[in-house]
Amino acid sequence: MEILWSPWRSKYIESFKEEKDNEQCFVCAAIENPAEDAERLVVYRSPFSIVIMNKYPYNAGHLLVCPLKHSATLDSLSTDELLDLIQTVRLSVNVLEKAMSPHGFNIGINIGRVAGAGLPEHIHFHVIPRWNGDTSFISVISDTKVISQSMEEIRNKLIDLFQHHD
Ligand SMILES: [Zn+2]
User: Fold this and answer.
1) Does pTM top 0.90 for this prediction?
2) Does 123 map to a domain?
3) Per-residue pLDDT tens for 51-106?
């Protein structure tokens, strides 16, 4: 994988420190506060999983697919929870394909802080759309305001597609 250079990620590191200070899991906070879906960037809820847009994405459309269970490992998830999680990853890929026509995807889980997990306490899949040439394209964009504006538009599009899947 070519590494995407994302200058706005430094804000993520800062916000993570803040979140750590008040010891709040942002995934659980999103799960427990459906009235705040817009500000928490939630796009979809399944019986055992939730899909949240990454506030500080590596690329446009970067989604986090998380089990509802607050767990640091795959071991503690039941077969039903695991099945729902991977089905929700598949659905996320299908929705992103319709919404953004990416050329490919990076999909993965970071387990443990050493592996780059920003929230090691609550396991989650990263689903990151990729476009030909995006590594050089992204490095040109350093205006975070442009990113956040398009995130609102992307969120509305994704919600609509998640609701009308099948
Ligand atoms: Zn959690």
Assistant:
1) no
2) yes
3) 999 988 888 899 999 999 999 999 999 999 999 999 999 999 999 999 999 999 99
User: Which residue of the set 70, 124, 126, 165 is catalytic?
Assistant: 124
Q: What is the DSSP string of the chain?
A: -PPP--TTHHHHHHHHHHHHHTT--HHHHHHH-GGGHHHHTEEEE-SSEEEEE-SS-SSTT-EEEEESS--SSSTTS-HHHHHHHHHHHHHHHHHHHHHH--SEEEEEE--SGGGT-SSTTS--EEEEEE-TTHHHHHHH---HHHHHHHHHHHHHHHHHHHHT--
Q: Which domain holds residue 114?
A: 24-163
In the reported structure, the alpha carbon of residue 121 is separated from the centroid of ligand 1 by a whole-number distance in angstroms of: 7
- In a domain? residue 153: yes
Overall number of domains in the chain: 1
> Does 70 qualify as catalytic in the annotation?
no
CATH number at residue 119: 3.30.428.10
